[in-house]
Amino acid sequence: MVGKRRGRRLIAYLFDVGRARPKRTPSPAQLAAIEKATREHQARAAARRGYTRTDLTTLTDPGPGWDETTTHQEEPTMPNTDTNTGTVPIVEGGPGAPTRLTPSGRGQRLAFLRTVAAVNQAKYHREQLDQLVVEAENAGRSEDFGRRLAQQLAEAEDQLAAEDPWRNPHALTHALAEALYWSPGSDLAAARVQQIGEQLAHRWGVVLDGVDPETCTVGIDPAFDAAAAQLAVDRAVVRARERAVAETLSQIPMPEPSQDRVVAAVTAWYDAEGAGTATPHDSDALAARLEELHGDLSALDLAQPERDQVRFTVDYLWRDVGQVDLLDTPVMVDPGQEVRGRVPQLLQAFAEQRIAPAEIGAEISVMTVADQQAVREAGRAIRAGDEVDVRLWPGYADRDQLREQLETYARDAVEAGREADYLAETDLAPFDAALVGINDDIEDRIERMSLSHDQLLAAAEAAKGLAPAERHQIRAVLADVEAGVAEDYELPELMWVDERSKAQLDTDRSHRQGAVLAQTFCREAMQAIADGKAQPSNAHTQTLEGVLSTVGDNLYSVASGSVDDAHRTQFVKDRTALGRALTAAGVYAETKADIRELVDTRARQAGKLGRGAVEREQRWKTRTAEILARRDDAIAQRRAANASVAPSARICTTRPDRATGQSTATALPSYTVGVQQKHSREVER
Questions:
Q1: What separation in angstroms does the CA of 10 have from each of 129, 332, 364, 568?
Q2: Is the pTM of this model over 0.85?
Q3: Where is this chain compositionally biased, Polar residues type (predicted)?
Q4: CA separation for the pair 671, 541 (Å, rounded)
Q5: For the segment 373-395, what is each residue's pLDDT rounded down to a tens digit?
Q6: Which backbone phi and psi does 291 adopt, to 5 degrees?
Q7: Which of 21, 325, 332, 576 holds its CA 20 to 30 A away from the CA of 253?
């Protein structure tokens, strides 16, 4: 086996004569079939280039050059091999040479790439079909092959009729390729090609000339305003984010008077004069819109918990949480509900012995007692060797997997943009242009992005355990990625609003502070050495850089929260080693004193940052414990209330299904700030 392709094993015995099949002499019938197929292939290739079948057999005058004796030169000039790809139209650019129309703007270039890939795939698969037809005729299986082909056509027509080619930006390629492939024998497929072509021309100025896969070409409408179309798409991205803010704020549970005031304010902001003109690239306009909304909401008469949740929701959806203290944010997701989505991965890792039982115990400690017991039972069954369905709560969102899928989608989008730029700006030879999108990275990426787009949108619509704001965030990120809002797009700093994600971001912020401190120290120390009177040799300089890097690593660890005695002892050792290295390098005492003072100053700063990190870590633990205590208390109160109900009222009740949120799903309203205004004022802490 030499590899796999789409899960299919590829086997070749090219050089093992002992295992290779013996060559067979073709029969006269086979030779005739090969000759016929070759002529047909040549005729189709000639037709694509504007030649008829008659032209292939018509003798023409080769020109006077064939009757003259060739005179060889010592330095012959290179022939002009410039050829047009036949993919983008050529227009006259004045008295000079013709000009090649180039797709412009991200949207038009991506649409052009996907369309070219679809046309090439249809042509390629159609050529394969022609070969299969010839083989079936030669083998006497024409009738059977025709029946199977008719069945495939019927299935394809059903799929074309049901499929929406615009459901996501990448589904177009498959839909167009399928429609083109079947268009010679299907009026429905030909009509779908025509429909897609009209939409492409209307949306992006990409012209699809013809419905026959053998002769169809892709071009650019010179009269189309690609810049205006791209501007409209960019504005729509920001408008969608504004709409998400408005819809999410209107869904926050709070007392009716407060709800009415919030809805009125955000509606007026959304419909304000001049709204809808900002683009993702205009940071000043985006900041102004955010400030305008904050000003309108700050003027409302709201209780402090309601005000906190409203402001955090706006900042979260606007990707502006850099200055937000996450410990002061409202609780929007039950920690136990968040873990439900990760239980399959935890149990799978346990089955593969990649995680210890104690680690799983720590992860599920935030779940209810009933949920923890369910996970432990599954773990015991796995240890006993039984087959276990690890999806204890089907349909719950795994935020780690969703984030990884979004990151992959964003990377693919960046690569797709680069490929679209290359195709638009490079004058490919006809042979190379005809291979774009056929069994290459472009085809794989388009298929992968189409599938991911559908899966992510489905998660945003129906995945359990996600907060409404998180659902809007998924849609907004998909829109940002597709619009190409940045060269190297990064997901929002805070992608999710569950407690685990917020605590992790808070820890990452502490680590970033430690990294900046360590880098600053190393840079300042090397600058002090360079400014000193004695200049160390290259060997000593490399040694000093290594020792300083070690001290910097220690400063980073301390600033990130490692303030125990072991790290203090290691820091003293590293500082002593730095002093010896400075002495060995011949650094003057004055410079050594300056560096020692710098080390002590940065060490004090690292210690201060580290103590703050430890304090915040403890506050997160306390916060989580309080959330769980309130949740468990609410569950106990409900059980007590249910126990007081007359038995006759409970005779016909059914056992709640685990997948519908047994034991904890009904407790969720008590942990969101807005709902708790009706029950308790302590939720946001």
A1: 21, 51, 44, 59
A2: no
A3: 78-87, 660-677
A4: 57
A5: 999 999 999 999 999 999 999 99
A6: -65, -40
A7: 325
